[in-house]
Each structure stands twice: as structure tokens, then as C-alpha cells.
Design brief:
By secondary structure, the protein is mainly beta. The chain has a single domain, classed as Sandwich (Immunoglobulin-like), CATH 2.60.40. The protein contains one helix and eleven strands. A five-stranded antiparallel β-sheet has the order 3-4-9-6-7, with no helix packed on it. Strands 1-11-5-8 form a four-stranded antiparallel β-sheet. A two-stranded antiparallel sheet has the order 2-10. The longest helix has 22 residues. It is globular.
Length: 164
């Protein structure tokens, strides 16, 4: 049996090797969604529905995304929906939950500001991926600090992780 110090040194060496080799396993890039009709989400509180004293539900409707996949054709990949960490007017990520329902190949899900949620896994087979999300926000009004008349807005984006 190895002495504890040698086992610890071996474990540290293996961990360091794994960390250094990790970039060789997968590469992460932001997907180009500039062909999307509307990627920027802006709230309209006139459609808000109070659920209880601490939650307001705000349906945002359908958001269409058109993602350029040409650089990743033929590669195994995972796609993530990324909600920006900083949302102007929001005091903390706990104050907003973004929920989406995919209408195509992407999975439905939810996340808070700063989250990166996997929505697709497979082999990229076309130069474009088109997806529509039905977006809904669940907001805790106690966590909002917005000037009167302003709107809550943010721009989520997609990242791709290509695998070897």
C-alpha cells in the first residue's frame, strides 16, 4: 500500500493533468444568432399576472432563433441556453426565473440569471438550426429596482460545446 503522502501527490497530479487536458475534450463557443428576427427580450408588464403576493408571471410570447451551425457541421455537440448574469433592474438572480417551451428539437426548461442550461445534444447535420421558444418570466417584484416606465430586458444567447 502506498503511503498517504504519495497517494495524495498522485491524486493531485492526476487532477492537474485532467484540468490541463479538459480543453482537448471539448471546445465552447457562442453561437451566431444574428439572423434571428428578435433575440433581445423586453418585458411588457401590461400582460403580467399576479400569482400570489410574491410572484408575477409575465408571458413574453414566441421568440424565434436562427443559429448558424456551419462551423460545427458533422461534429458531436451540446447546445446550451445562457441567461445573462446581470439583468438591469434586477437586484438578484433569485428574483427572476426564465421558463421556456421549445417547439422543435430543443428541450424545454428553466433557469435564473447566470445559468447555462443544456437544450440539445447530438450531431450537427445542417448549416442552420431554427428553434422557437415560448418564453415566460416568473418575477419576484421585491427584487426589482427599475425606474418608473422602464422595462425589464435582457438578451439570452446560445453556446455550443463541440466534442471530439
Amino acid at each position: 500500500m502506498k503511503p498517504p503522502r504519495l497517494r495524495r501527490a498522485t491524486a493531485v497530479a492526476l487532477l492537474c493533468g485532467a484540468v490541463l487536458a479538459a480543453p482537448a475534450w471539448a471546445t465552447v463557443a457562442r453561437l451566431d444568432d444574428s439572423a434571428s428576427p428578435r433575440a433581445h427580450v423586453r418585458s411588457d408588464f401590461s400582460n403580467a399576472q399576479a400569482m400570489d403576493g410574491h410572484v408575477v408571471v409575465l408571458p413574453l410570447g414566441r421568440i424565434e432563433y436562427r443559429l448558424a451551425m456551419t462551423p460545427h457541421l458533422g461534429r458531436r455537440a451540446r447546445i446550451f441556453y445562457v441567461i445573462p448574469a446581470n439583468v438591469a433592474g434586477l437586484r438578484s438572480p433569485a428574483g427572476m426565473l426564465v421558463q421556456w417551451r421549445g417547439s422543435g428539437a430543443f428541450a424545454s426548461g428553466s433557469g435564473r440569471p447566470g445559468d447555462r442550461v443544456q437544450v440539445w445534444n447530438g450531431v450537427v447535420q445542417a448549416p442552420w438550426m431554427n428553434e422557437t421558444f415560448e418564453l415566460t418570466l416568473r418575477i419576484d417584484p421585491r427584487e426589482l429596482r427599475m425606474p418608473a416606465g422602464s422595462a425589464l430586458s435582457f438578451e439570452s444567447f446560445f453556446e455550443i460545446e463541440t466534442l471530439p
